[in-house]
């Protein structure tokens, strides 16, 4: 692995950005966090002397170039509202043009399993699995990553896609499992997407940062996509059983399957958007990351038991703080 220059995290305010920033800071590397809100970035990264905070407008080419100036590597974490996935390709097109104009050498997209569509053959799947999405969100993510991969090799520019499964972690509100931890801590019923007895793969988000940090200084990784898997599979019911046991309680769950999502979607746009992706709950897709391990060495995986404990403790602290502030 080679030493590398400064890394910029574009769309850094979310949980994945926090994990990658923590890994860069722990390695003693200066990095830049880029987002729309200075307040959000200051709240998350203001304590780290290695972090430089920069505000951008991803619709403005001048702003993109300015945000990328002086960086060797950009890690792209920019999210869009779940009902606005059509924004992904044009945002990526603008960002790639801006960072290349700024002289950035390497680009990492943190991707998803959406471009694969339904799993073919047996799980877990390798990187040679067909990318044939049957959903709108999958097609938008596929178009996004195709732009990234097509840019590889242009004037020495290097790109890669790191594909993750669904995620969870302490305080990660956008996780499918988050309400289980809060429900256990608050002694209430948790809302969960069903079915809840189907094995599913989740990655513990704090495990992602160290891998991305290594990829920023691994030139041989570029020009393709890689898988980063979780610590095997688990069912949502098993997660609930362990989380509620930590609270000394029996699980209390309200399960929303595809039918209920359709009904809820009449009133809630987010629920409506979850319907087309519900196949990932009924037809699990599990990743094999042996190729990545062969490239960069052993991949640290937090066990589900340890991850659930940390998530529950974070939720318990949050609930206690909320109660004490009333």
UniProtKB/TrEMBL annotation:
Name this protein carries in UniProt: NAD-dependent epimerase/dehydratase family protein
Superkingdom to which the source organism belongs: Bacteria
Residue ranges constituting the NAD-dependent epimerase/dehydratase domain according to the UniProt record: 10-218
Gene3D superfamilies in UniProt: NAD(P)-binding Rossmann-like Domain (3.40.50.720)
Top-level taxonomy: Bacteria, Pseudomonadati, Pseudomonadota, Betaproteobacteria, Burkholderiales
Organism name: Paraburkholderia translucens
Matching InterPro entries: Epimerase_deHydtase, NAD(P)-bd_dom_sf, NAD(P)-dependent_oxidoreduct
